[in-house]
Amino acid sequence: MTQAGHKPALSAGQIWNMSFGFLGIQIGFELQNGNVSRIFQTLGADVGELAILWIAAPMTGLIVQPIIGHLSDKAWSPRLGRRRPFFLLGALLASLALFVMPNAPVLWVAAGMLWVMDASLNITMEPFRAFVGDNLPDHQRTTGYAMQSFFIGTGAVLAGALPWVMTNWLGLANVAPEGQIPETVRCSFYIGGAALLAAVCWTVFTTREYSPEELAGFAAAEGVVAGARPVRVMRSARQFARGGILWLVAGAIVAGLVALARGEGRPAFLGAIEVAQELYVLAALVAGFGVIQLIASLLLAQGRSDSGFMEVVGDLFAMPRTMRQLAVVQFFSWFAMFALWIYGTPGVTAYHFGASDAASAAYQDGADWWSLMGSARNGLAAVAALGFVVVAARIDRTRLHALNLMLGAAGFAAMLLVRDPALLWVPQIGLGIAWASIVSLPYAILAGSVPAEKMGIYMGVFNIFIVVPQLLAATLLGFLVTNIFGGAAIYAMVIAAVSFLAAAVATLLVKEQTA
């Protein structure tokens, strides 16, 4: 029976249990982020090909998260609740992918397993974001997302240290014959897969969720009529058609320009500039947004405005003002982070260790050291996340996030200033604080600005503004690094520093509001 009243505060132990699964999720993500470029290079990929190979990760997030958000909003199991069935399914699939990927015999298999792994991790992760919004009152949401950030940092520490520990403490082989994955990496992925499943199961079986009736009661007590918000389509069928045609034409123009620049009739003014085939993905992204709008136009013309597709599109075009402002912040923040994940390993191994051959001992030592620096960065992030709970009570969340991003920009700049590998822990201080902030404070701000009954779908839509910059990074970073910085991967950190500064400025323009 639903008790009409405000949503009760949860104990520290309850918040711990509901966030613990993120420990496993981040172990999976960190093993992916820290080792996939290494696996690709070991299997024969060139540095210039890394960005396009990584494109599987954001593409799966772009497709999977809004769908999972919509489905989890509509789901309810008396035994497992609304979000937890998705936690469990995604964890099972992601664990399987972690066991398979380090045994990939050729590059295309590894690229395919990245797609499977990222899709599975997204199935698990997206409902976790909505889980906090569902279960916690607004005054505890910063604590809830900070606890998730703590486990993100802790999981990343454990995963980042695994290859180094395997080499230096357990004596496993860190160098393998050409074209084979080192034993340290394979064992790290096996341990990570088991830890991911165990951590997510802990949350699944130690937490409960409010039923739809209970959530409706809480909403009524707060003066909100649950279910009173129909699908909000801000445009007419004609407007969707017009916008779709414009975006489709723009995508075709971009594709045509790329084809011209890569063909035999290449314009002379391009000189030595290399126009990579990855830019076709940018063209497809632009055109794809046009296709989505054309489909929406057709559905509206047929009177089918109540479909799940139209609910997602309608909410996309009717985002609350706070969410639109945060979208800009997320764009620049995640563009910078994707630069770090793609080019961190090749940048550090070449710039700080003087090695570019993935089969060399110097390269593998550099990759292990950079993985360990990831642990240092994420350990700092875990500590910083707990500090946000205290600091956020004294300074508003937007100013705190802007300050954290500026510290992150300083960390990126320091990556070039520090030449001694032993001192690479110094830049990780700013980067760790910024990372903890990125995965907690925007979600805490967002959760209070969206309707409770649409928490899952809006968290999924919000992910678009994480995925789009990742796609742009995958298509543009290789072009920029090659043509502006002569292929020196470390200079991707300069681009990331500028992007963080832009995100900090955008954060100061965010105005918090309630749904």
Fold and architecture overview:
- This protein has two domains: 12-230 and 315-507, MFS general substrate transporter like domains (Growth Hormone, Chain: A); 237-304.
- The protein starts with 11 loop residues before the first helix and ends in an 8-residue tail after the last helix.
- The protein contains 20 helices and no strands.
- Mean pLDDT is 84; it is low at 224-231.
- The protein is globular and about 65 Å long.
- The chain has helices spanning 12-19, 21-42, 50-53, 56-74, 84-100, 107-135, 138-168, 183-206, 212-221, 237-262, 279-301, 308-317, 321-351, 361-391, 397-417, 425-438, 441-447, 455-462, 464-484, 492-507.
- With 515 residues, it is mostly helical.
What attributes does this structure have?
about 525 residues, Growth Hormone, Chain: A, mainly alpha, 20 helices
Oligomer: single chain
Give the SSE order as H and E letters: HHHHHHHHHHHHHHHHHHHH
How many structurally independent domains?
2
Hey, roughly how much beta strand do the residues contain? Answer: under 5%
What is the helical fraction, as a range of percent? over 70%
First-to-last CA distance: 26 Å
Task: Return the average pLDDT rounded to an integer.
Answer: 84
The CATH architecture designation of the largest domain is: Up-down Bundle
- Going by helix content, strand content and strand pairing, the class is mainly alpha
Instruction: Give the class-level CATH name of the largest domain.
Output: Mainly Alpha
From the spread of the alpha carbons, the general shape counts as globular
Number of helices: 20
